[in-house]
Amino acid sequence: MQVGIHLPHIGRKASPDAIRRAAVQAEELGFADVWVSEHIIIPKDANYPPSANFWDPVLTLTWAAACTQRVKLGTSVLVLPMRHPLPLAKELATLQNLSQGRLILGAGVGWMAAEFDALGVPFRERGRRMDEGIAMMKAVWNDDPVTFPTRWIAAKIDTMRMQPKPCAPIPIWIGGSSDAAIARALRLDGWHGSRVTPEQAPAMVQRLRAGRPDAGFAISLRTSDEGRDSGALLGRLEAYKAAGIQHVLVAPEERGIEEYLAAVERVARCAEGM
């Protein structure tokens, strides 16, 4: 089982130096990948997320890519329906090429209606916009020239060109545990879930493998780490591995950068031999 770590690009610990130090540390400690999350704009009095200071995920991964050579670079998750697929496809293809093929696109439909409202995107259409947006990005990544008819996203793409093409296919892992999210994941390259306990993991793996038994389909989980009990984290990782989870993203919750870096070292010790 592979283990990744979430980068410190959120809250008071976010800074260029913090992200660089964390990415380099992750590579040196042998983590498989480094990850980022996304909120573009949130209500002032929102209970969650606890901070509005979200550094842009694609730019953060670009910075991390420049500081590293091996670790993969993942999004947990990009809220695709909030973004127009064409500029996003260009950004992701460029990042894939700058990093020499290390990108994993974790994608979800989102849940914060106020954020969609601020961006002028219909919240109730987010699932349909998600599916059409993924199809549009795959079209411009693969076809040259490209023609793509749309229904939900405002675009007219008729015998047009977009370059660069990604130097390698960008795997798409879908986040979420709804029936629609599971069905979407099974059509693509992997599932990147959260809030799944070790007790719930075997049933989820069984459900996913019933639809995608091939080893190329990734099953990934995100779990938080409060830094209080290394034994509990180790037990959780072992249980996920036993359930058939292939990849776990650990997100340390420490607010200061020095505390975060120390937590990552502890996570690395727990992940040894996974």
Q: Would you write up a description of this structure?
A:
- The protein is an alpha/beta fold.
- The chain has one domain: Alpha-Beta Barrel (TIM Barrel).
- Helices cover 41% and strands 18% of the residues.
- The protein has nine helices and eleven strands.
- The chain has helices at residues 16-29, 57-67, 85-98, 113-119, 126-142, 179-187, 201-211, 230-243, 257-271, and strands at residues 2-6, 33-36, 72-75, 78-79, 103-108, 146-148, 157-160, 172-174, 190-194, 218-225, 247-252.
- The strands form two sheets. The chain has an eight-stranded parallel barrel with strand order 1-2-3-5-8-9-10-11, surrounded by six helices. Strands 6-7 form a two-stranded antiparallel sheet.
- Helix 8 (230-243) links the parallel strand 10 and strand 11 (247-252).
- Helix 8 crosses helix 9 (257-271).
- The chain is globular and about 55 Å long.
- The mean pLDDT is 97.
Short description:
Helices cover 41% and strands 18% of the residues. The chain is of the alpha/beta class.
* Total count of helical runs of at least 4 residues: 9
Per CATH, the superfamily is Luciferase-like domain
Helix content: 40-55%
Low-confidence stretches: none
CATH architecture: Alpha-Beta Barrel
Terminal CA distance reads 5 Å
Helix/strand/pairing category: alpha/beta
Spatial arrangement of strands, main beta sheet: 1-2-3-5-8-9-10-11
| Integer-rounded radius of gyration | 18 Å
Major sheet description: 8 strands, parallel, barrel
Keyphrases for this structure?
274 residues, alpha/beta, TIM Barrel, 8-stranded parallel barrel, two-stranded antiparallel ribbon
